[in-house]
Amino acid sequence: MQERNAHVRPRMHYLCMDMLQLEFPDAHFQVVLDKGMLDALLTDEKEPTLVRGERMFSEISRVLQLGGRYLCVSLAQAHVLKAALGHFSREGWMVRIHQVSGSEAVSPERQFTLPIFIYVMTKFKKVPGSALCVLEICTAEWDRPVRMESAERLAEAVRERQQYALLRSQLNKHSSAGNISLDLCNAATGKPRYTLHVVDSPGGKLSHTKHFAIFIIPQGRETEWLFGTEEGRKQLAVSAGFQRLVTVALHRDQCYEGMEGIQTELSGKVMELAPPGLLPQQQVPFLSVGGDIGVRAIQHHSTSALSGEYVIEDVKGDDACYFRRLVFLSNRNVIQSEARLLPQAPPKGHKKQKKKKAAAAVAVCDSTRPLLVSASHAVDKSYLCCAHHRAMVAGLALLKSLELFPEAPIHVLVIGLGGGSLPLFIHNYFSQCHVEAVEIDPTMLEVAMRWFDFSLGNRLKVHVADGLDYVTRVAAEELCCYDAIMFDVDSKDSALGMSCPPPTFVEKPFLQKVRAILKPEGIFILNLVCRDSQLRGSVLAVLEEVFPVLYAWRTEEEVNEILFCQLHPKCRLTPVEILERARVLEKALRLPGQAWDSTYTLADMLQAMRIV
After folding, report:
1. 3-class DSSP state for residue 412?
2. 3-state secondary structure (DSSP) of residue 129
3. What local confidence, expressed as pLDDT, does residue 363 receive?
4. pLDDT given at position 354
5. Is 278 helix (H, G, I), strand (E, B) or coil?
6. Are 284 and 182 in contact (CB under 8 A)?
7. A Pfam family for this UniProt protein (predicted)?
8. What confidence score (pLDDT) does residue 311 get?
């Protein structure tokens, strides 16, 4: 090497030396460059190997001046990174890790799969007793470094980049990579900014020009079946006709500068997810519904002692309608409650004021401030947004004496309040019905009354209590007092395979208490959300032990399954009888002068009902 470079690099010296015992004096260099030697030395995590690593670090520290830098090129295997971070952070050095970009001249198929990193360790004077240590990562050439709070978090960030590189390699080499999702985070805050799902169309006739496209899901619509489920996204990809479609969901705590701004921000990153064979300069279309990114405005953000952090948000849905939603941030992809908002007719003489407000509402659509739509809109109490709520109300058609509706003096118990739309609808359309709702979280009652126009009255009461305790107490009184009992309560434990209701609500001893407070010809209606087929089977088995008559309602677009339970076999109806009862009930509920949602047909809802 010395001879080869004697004329080209005459000031460069090549020396043979033991890196664990360097022959240079202290503070001799400003830079130490290590091209893979650390990786070669730390082949495992055995004690002798780690001791050699520590000796190497000590020698590097000795020969570097204060302010000098140790530059180490590494694949950042977990044990190598752990050793380096552990030593230099303890010594009070500044640690920054750069990910090296691949060459644009090399096709993705030929690039090295694992990313390469450079550790930049800057020597500072160690201050006894000081816990200050600067840890940073820089994942792109022109990005600003991101500060990390701990060595563990920095190592985790490196691991995420390695996993992403493996994922990218898989996507670049295979035209069908399965169900893949990933989050792109805000570089400044580290919070998720975009959630991407990669969807490859199944085999079939596809256009030779439609290889790859990006679909921006409008804000607030990411929970819809078409965008929020694997089956829905597959259908979307087939309808779009592209070989690979990447759907992009926008997060509620981020600010976006319209479709053009999102396209500029994502163009470079999404190309890393392109299918094999895509030409480097090929234009990739950005698609959306109606060509915009939708509207979402946070009206209220707070925390409940029982339910945790939650938001009230207004979103613009399809057909330009606005909807108000309650979302628990512990399960941010699930809408807990939803209500449609309708514009209120302005008082006479206030037409100019209305126009000013409308203009203002348009002006803030893309901002993070609350929409002014709230002041000019009211909750539509005639509209049930949730399909499972519509099914639960339609299930009241199974009650006897339909000819007496809606004046029949029935008593309904609803466990779980949320925004209150279900008990409020029953109260408003069954004019002699007495509704009692039980809600464990007093904050939710406040939310329902403030944001969803829920109100109490002589026929509508709310008990702030645990539903388990309330049913147990009423059962102890030995009174069969309810014509209908509805469970619409979520589970706070996301680790379970059943998110609604909590498992204790469907245990046999408790269901027997539910049976005890139900009138002989009454109906028990349960909202079940269970993705574990074995657990679902055990729930149905217990229900059948307690309730001889069991119907189930579910559609392809719904994760909710509504179960209708009755006490006596004589209550069992044929599908034809169920549909006829639904028509009779709907005719009774459509009262003159009272609004009725024209899209809500009880018989159509119960078409999906089947006997278990």
Report:
1. strand
2. coil
3. 31
4. 44
5. coil
6. no
7. Spermine_synth
8. 95
Helix, strand, coil shares, percent, the chain, to 5? 35, 25, 40
- Residue 8: which residues within 8 A CB-CB, separation 6 or more? none
Which pLDDT score, from 0 to 100, does residue 203 have? 62
Residue labelled with tokens 């020597």 = 123
Choose among 611, 517, 528: nearest CA to 571. Answer: 611
Task: DSSP for 341-358, please give it.
Answer: EEEPPPPTT-HHHHHHHH
Q: Judging by DSSP bridges, how do beta strands 192-200 and 146-148 pair with one another?
A: unpaired
pLDDT in tens, 288-332: 987 778 888 899 999 999 999 999 999 988 777 899 999 999 888
Q: Can you read off the two tokens belonging to residue 310?
A: 């939650």
Contact 416, 492 (CB under 8 A): no
- Contact between residue 385 and residue 224 where contact means Cβ atoms under 8 Å apart: no
Please list the alpha-helical segments (H only) found in 282-432.
351-363, 373-376, 387-394, 421-429
Residue numbers of the chain with a pLDDT score lower than 70:
101-112, 129-132, 141-142, 175, 177-178, 202-208, 280, 345-375, 402-406, 494-495
Contact predicate 485/452, CB 8 Å: no
Strands (E) in 509-583, as ranges, are 518-530, 549-553, 561-566
Asked if 549 contacts 568 with a C-beta cutoff of 8 angstroms, the reply is yes
What is the amino acid identity at position 549? Answer: V
Angle subtended by helix axes 508-516 and 533-546, to nearest 10? 40
pLDDT of residue 107: 54
Mean pLDDT rounded to a whole number for the chain: 86
Would you say how long the chain is, in residues?
612
Q: What is the pLDDT of residue 64?
A: 96
SS3 211: coil
Of the candidates 180, 184, 132, the one whose C-alpha atom is nearest the C-alpha of residue 160 is 184
pLDDT tens profile 353-386: 444 433 333 333 334 455 545 567 899 999 999 9
Q: CB under 8 Å to 258, separation ≥6 — which residues? A: 292, 293, 366
Q: How far is CA 493 from CA 98, 279, 367, in A?
A: 39, 47, 34
Provide the pLDDT for residue 111: 61
The string of DSSP codes covering 458-526 is: TTEEEEES-HHHHHHHHHHTT---EEEEEE----S-TTSSEEES-GGGGSHHHHHHHHHTEEEEEEEEE
Residue 469 in tokens: 């305790």
- How far apart are the C-alpha atoms of 260 and 568, rounded to whole Å? 61
Residue with tokens 């493996």: 166
So what's the pLDDT on residue 5?
78
Question: Kindly report the CA angle at 561 between 560 and 564, in degrees rounded to 5?
Answer: 140
Q: Which residues contact 448 (CB under 8 A, 6 or more apart)?
A: 337, 417, 418, 419, 420, 454
CA distances from 511 to 388, 507, 543, 545 (A): 21, 6, 8, 10
Q: Quote the tokens at residue 199.
A: 């969807």
Q: Report the run of H or E that residue 439 belongs to, with start and end.
A: strand 434-439
DSSP class of 149? S
Prediction pTM value: 0.74
